[in-house]
Structures are given as structure tokens and as C-alpha cells.
Amino acid sequence: MPRKTNAKWFQRLRQSFHLALRWLIPGIGVKRWIAVILAGTTLIGLGFAVLVIDLYRNAPDTWWLPVLSFISLRFLDRPLRALIFGGLGLLLIALGVLGLNRSLLKPFISSSRPIIETVSEYRRKERGPRIVALGGGTGLSSLLRGVKLETHNLTAIVTVADDGGSSGELRQRIGILPPGDIRNCLAALSNDEELLTQLFQYRFAQSAGLGGHSLGNLLITALTDITGSFEEAVSETRRVLAVQGQVLPATLHDVRLVADVELPQTGQQVRVKGESKITEARGRVKRIWLEPNNPLAFPPTLQAILNADLIVVGPGSLFTSILPNLLVPDIAEAIKASRAIKFFVCNVATQQGETSGFTCGDHLDTLVKHLGSNPFDVMICNNSFVKKLAPGVEWVKPEPDLDKRVSVYFADLVDDENPWRHDDTKLARAVMDLFYERTGPLGGREDLPPA
Fold first, then answer.
1. Nearest to 247 by CA among 341, 121, 134, 129
2. What is the pTM of this model?
3. How far apart are CA 98 and CA 16, in angstroms?
4. Which of 20, 159, 255, 296 shows the greatest Cβ crowding within 10 Å of its Cβ?
5. Using CA atoms, how far apart are residues 438 and 113, in angstroms rounded to an integer?
6. What is the largest CA-CA distance in the chain?
7. DSSP strands (E only) in 49-101
8. Which letter, b or e, does each residue of 294-309 get, where b requires 16 or more Cβ atoms within 10 Å of its Cβ?
9. Within 13 Å and on the Cβ side, how many CA atoms surround 397?
10. Which of 434-438's residues contact partners 24+ apart within 8 Å by CB, and which partners?
11. Where in the chain are the domains?
12. SS (HEC) of 155-205
């Protein structure tokens, strides 16, 4: 038993020592402050040493001088004394700094993880690439949920053309911009994946007298009334959810999505107004635009695009989530002007009422038609078609000659439980592997930022 106890004690001591050494890893931002503490402590020690030497040389010979001589280890050589006192000083400083950090950071750090792991991960994400994602619905949320593990410098740009469900009702009755997509993105970026996010996404039943509204939509609406500003309300909600990143509207104008839709039964074209009505028409969208035309973009949105290292367009509903962002002229021009790497993530499955029968090339052609040119460096497409889809939903497959029109990167992106959606982890891995490792079509570019 004593041997086992000693072995466990030695193992714990070794683990503690290795954990302490991790504080010296480059990039954590701790060594500089340790150096400042050591410099200050050294100066204090020098001052105390000068005082002791003065006592030795000038004080009368009394009973406490031999005691002081013993405490200061004068019977040992000076190099050995310096080593002993220096080692004890370093040990006390380390224990003091560690104890102080634990006391100060305990309310903010999970007890299940060592402090060094939390600090190291935070610093790594703080230095992560500046990524801007444009999309909507569950597709954009999936991308954000995966990529947030790589960087804190993440900006989601969402459309404000939504007019259905809870968002549409709040927009009609109260006159605020629709909060639904913004709410979903804030929840996806939140560091709290448990109770707080579930509470934010909670939707009241119709029988509760709250019209099926989600708590997040009501919170953003209330904050808009309190602060007098929709963008300020989103910013305050971001603080409540501890979001490391930002969610920005494409524009602050009250815009409506309008489309010319060809009905499948008659071949007749009808004009449909409203994002929710376009999907309900169940036809083929021939043309789509915003009313009023040419709305001004939200300035911080343009700044985020122009400062980005990586711009990711998609996934999401092509006509009702992705294109409304690009139909804001300033955003389209900013994407073209930005020096960032630009990815287009194609949907894995078609959407009834929007993209029935679409291929990967059809998705790309639709974006290029509205942008006027192809700004994308790489198109990311799914290549796994094993799972069974729901009736009326088809796989979005690439054409044989797609790689002649655009650089394509293929990967398994399918969520095993919901195969018509992207898997968070798979999608984020594909995006970040392309960006960091320069795999596939990006290998030839010389202007890429270092990994």
C-alpha cells in the first residue's frame, strides 16, 4: 500500500509540474507578466539585501546577529546561498501567482477544465482568422456552430427580408426588423450550449397567448424598444449569451423580397411578394429582387467583409436566405473588392419550392447571375449520397464538367441523422482544412495568409 500511495503521489506531482510548464507555451501572453513580477521581486530582494548588509557592517554586536547570520546561511558559500534563496523565491512566486489566478478566475472558468487549457484555447481562438459567413436558416447555424471552435473573429451576416412565422408577425405588428435568423445565429455562436441557449430558442405554444413566438425573438424585440435601436438590441443580446463573434444585419432598411415565379402546373409567371410566399408558390423562381431597390448596407457589415481573411457564402436557402444578402448592392461589391479567400458552400439537398431539380452548377449559376461575375476561389460540394432523403427532396449533385467552370472541393458533408442538412463538424473541418492546409484547389495561390 505505501508503494502504491507513493506512486500515485509522484504521478500527481509530475502531472502538476507538466501543467505548470504549459504556462510557458508561446502565445498565451503570460510569460511577459511573469518577467515583470520577477523583475519587481528582484528589486525588492536587492533592497532587502542592502539593508541586511548594512546591519552586518554597522550594527553593534548583539545576540540577534548570530541568529541573523544563521537564517541568512552565512556558513554556506555565496553561490549555493543564491541558488537556495532564488529557488525558494521562484517557488513562492509561482504558488502565489497560481493561487491568485485561481481565486480571480474561479467564477468565470468551468471547474472541469484546468485554467491553462481555458486560457490557451482562448488565446488560440483570439488569434484565429477573420471569417465572414453569409447565409441563413439552419445551414448558416451549422457552419457557425462548427467554425466557432476555431476562431473568435467570426461575423455572421443575415438577411432581414424574413416575413414568415414569429419574425414576420413581430415585423408586421411592431415594425422592427425580423429577429429570427439573427436569433438562430446568436444561439449557434453562444458559448453556453446548454440551458441558456435552449431557453433563448424556446418557443411558446399558441395556447399560451404568445402566438408561438420564441423567447429570443421577444427578448430582441423588448431590447429594441428599450435601447431604441435594433442593432444595439442585437449587441446587448450577444452579451447575454456570451457570444464570441458578432451577428450583423445586411441592411437596416425595411426590405421585402419579390420574385417572378413560374408555376409548374400552367407555366404562367406570377409576381410573388414576401419571402414566405415565394416558397409556398412551389414554382421555379425566374427573377428575384428587393423592394425598395438598392438599400444601403449596414456599415459595420461592409467593414467586416473588407477586413475578412475568409468569406463563406452558404449554406442556406438559395433564394430566400443567401441571395437577399447579395441583392444589397454594397455587399455584392464589397465581396468582389475584398482580398479575402472566398468559398461557396453548396447545399447538400434540394429545397421544395426553391431549388427542386437543381444541380451544383445551377446553384453557382444563380449566384453568378445576380453578382455579375464569379468571385469564388473554391466551391465546396458534398460527395456522399448514401443516405435516404425524404419524399420530394433530392441530392444536389455536381455535373461532370463542373471543375472546368470553378475550382471544386469535394467532401462528405452530410449529417447522418438529418441527411438533407450539413453536419456541423464535417463542414467546419472542410472549410478550415482548405483555409489552413492549402489542400485541393487553393494550393497555387501565393497571396494566402500564413496558417
1. 134
2. 0.77
3. 12
4. 159
5. 32
6. 115
7. none
8. ebebbeebbebbeebb
9. 9
10. 434/343, 434/378, 434/380, 434/409, 435/129, 435/309, 435/310, 435/341
11. 2-119, 126-443
12. EEEECCCCCCHHHHHHHHHHCCCCCHHHHHHHHHHECCCCHHHHHHHCECC
* Model pLDDT, residue 1: 47
DSSP state of 73: T
Confidence check: pLDDT of 443 > 60 = no
Task: Read off the C-alpha cell for 277.
Answer: 410566399
Task: Report how far residue 204's alpha carbon sits from residue 101's, in angstroms, rounded to the nearest whole number.
Answer: 42
pLDDT at 451 over 50: no
pLDDT band for 55, please (50, 70, 90 cuts): low
State the average pLDDT over residues 290-306: 94
What does the alpha-carbon distance between residue 253 and residue 258 come to, in Å, rounded to a whole number?
A: 15
Per the CB < 8 A criterion, the answer to whether 129 and 435 are in contact is: yes
Rounded CA gap, 415 and 422, in Å? 5
CB 281 within 8 A of CB 264: no
User: Of 413, 323, 317, 314, whose CA–CA distance to 356 is shortest?
Assistant: 317
Classify residue 277 as exposed, middle or buried by CB count within 10 Å of its CB (0-12, 13-18, 19+).
middle
Q: Residue 444 — very low, low, confident or very high, per pLDDT cuts 50/70/90?
A: very low
Query: Rounded to the nearest 10 degrees, how much is the dihedral formed by the CA atoms of 408, 334, 338, 368?
Result: 20
The tens digit of pLDDT for each residue in 178-207 reads 888 888 898 888 876 566 677 777 888 765
* d(C-alpha 297, C-alpha 290), whole Å: 13
DSSP bridge pairs for 154 = 131
Grid cell in block for residue 390: 425524404
- H or E stretch including 437? helix 424-437
Residues 126-443, CATH architecture: 3-Layer(aba) Sandwich (3.40)
| Integer angstrom CA distances of residue 81 from 46, 86, 91 | 14, 8, 15
DSSP 8-state assignment for residue 130: -
Cell reading at 372: 455579375
